[in-house]
Amino acid sequence: MNLLTTTLCLCLALVACHHELVSEPMDIAKEELDRCKGLEMDAVVVDEDGVPVFFKGDRLFKGFHGKSELSNGPVDAALSMNFNESDNACTFFFLDHMVFRYIQEKLVAGYPKNISEAFAGIPDHLDAAMQCPKPVCEKNTVIFFKGDKIYYYDVETTAVEVKEFPAMPNCTSALLFNGQSYCFFGTQFVEFDPKTGAIDGRWPKEARDYFMRCPVYGEGSVHLDRERCSHVRLDAITAEDANTIYVFRGHHYVSMDKFEGTYGSGTIESVFKEVHSELDAAFAFQGQFYMMKGNHVFAYISGEPPALVEGYPKTVKEVLGLDGDIDAAFVCPGDKVAHIFQGQTVYEVNMMSSTLPREAVFDAPMPLFKKVDAAMCGGSGVDLVVGSHFYHFNSTKMMFLARSLPEQLRVSRVLLGCDH
Ligand SMILES: *[C@@H]1O[C@H](CO)[C@@H](O)[C@H](O)[C@H]1NC(C)=O
Ligand SMILES: *[C@@H]1O[C@H](CO)[C@@H](O)[C@H](O)[C@H]1NC(C)=O
Ligand SMILES: *[C@@H]1O[C@H](CO)[C@@H](O)[C@H](O)[C@H]1NC(C)=O
Ligand SMILES: *[C@@H]1O[C@H](CO)[C@@H](O)[C@H](O)[C@H]1NC(C)=O
Q1: How confident is the model over 41-68, as pLDDT tens digits?
Q2: What is the CATH number of domain 230-415?
Q3: d(CA 345, CA 100)
């Protein structure tokens, strides 16, 4: 399966076509767009890693944070299609009356075509498009959006059914992501049921809260729901003890009390002042939190509030015997060894040795994942977070022995208890 392998290449490829279509010269020096200021996106697709790519004007945004890249061509709508898993996934871009189809980086022969030719019964000047496979939709369908009209295109029979769902906003981009259907409009979005058009009362929500990693903006309020339900990947996670788990993302944390089943959230800065935000990894060891950020380790003594240990921050080299930029780390309860993830390697560091610098004493490959975003070891084993999912192993040993992925669990629903 190979979607938008290189969105950039796709878009570079689009240049050629757009040069023919749009005669106005491109202004390379155009101002950088900031998605955290609030943008209405033109289109969105997911790439081959399942990460959303948003399009706005002549720019695109890959993933949940980071700057825009030049896309060199505006689009009305975009669609990634992979109904047939044995086929290469393809991506369609729609502009005015034209549709461009790409497989990997290549424009498919015969494209661009008129939309009316490639998708008979679907109008020009679309607003949005998304695929809707069985069983999310009753049939393998592409849903097109234009104004308040929604066109269901049956990919097997090519029949088109036009629907109007009064509850639905006019979508300017649409996405099937992690099995849920999302309609974006303005800077907001709703999750909708593509069979009925139903939206429940908790919507709409702000796209910046759930699909983008933005520092606190606007009123500066912190929403627990946002932190639990966001699709943006986590930076770090750690079990403070058998009962309490901390999850870190951007400027915010969520704390979970497993016995009480309660959650709290706030800015990292308000609790761990010196480390401030944007951690790489965290673990707890003997009543202290160790937080890694770039080349530095911040150690805090647990408490209300936690206090920075004297002499910290120190370098990662000194505390863990490794160069900086740690991906993830954990220490199992009662254990003396820290497991540190860097790329596909796991290092072990004996935290009992109190003389610094410490040395990483052992390393082992972790072939199952290209990169682990966050890791935690609690009473029941190890959890590794990768993107919007996590994987449970009954012990560190089982993690090292595993040769196939265990069940994929959703961070938002299973780990953070998001109810939608
Ligand atoms: C998927 O595509 C392959 C090759 O084009 C074809 O042989 C197969 O029948 C298709 N499967 C489905 C379920 O459409
Ligand atoms: C495509 O659409 C344009 C504009 O509507 C029309 O002039 C042209 O003939 C169409 N081409 C084909 C191959 O249908
Ligand atoms: C939605 O689209 C319809 C046209 O299809 C238009 O009349 C209506 O004003 C639009 N609503 C909004 C809120 O833009
Ligand atoms: C992990 O532990 C659970 C609960 O004890 C057990 O049901 C499961 O089979 C174990 N998984 C593996 C892979 O050993």
Answers
A1: 999 998 877 788 999 999 999 888 778 8
A2: 2.110.10.10
A3: 41
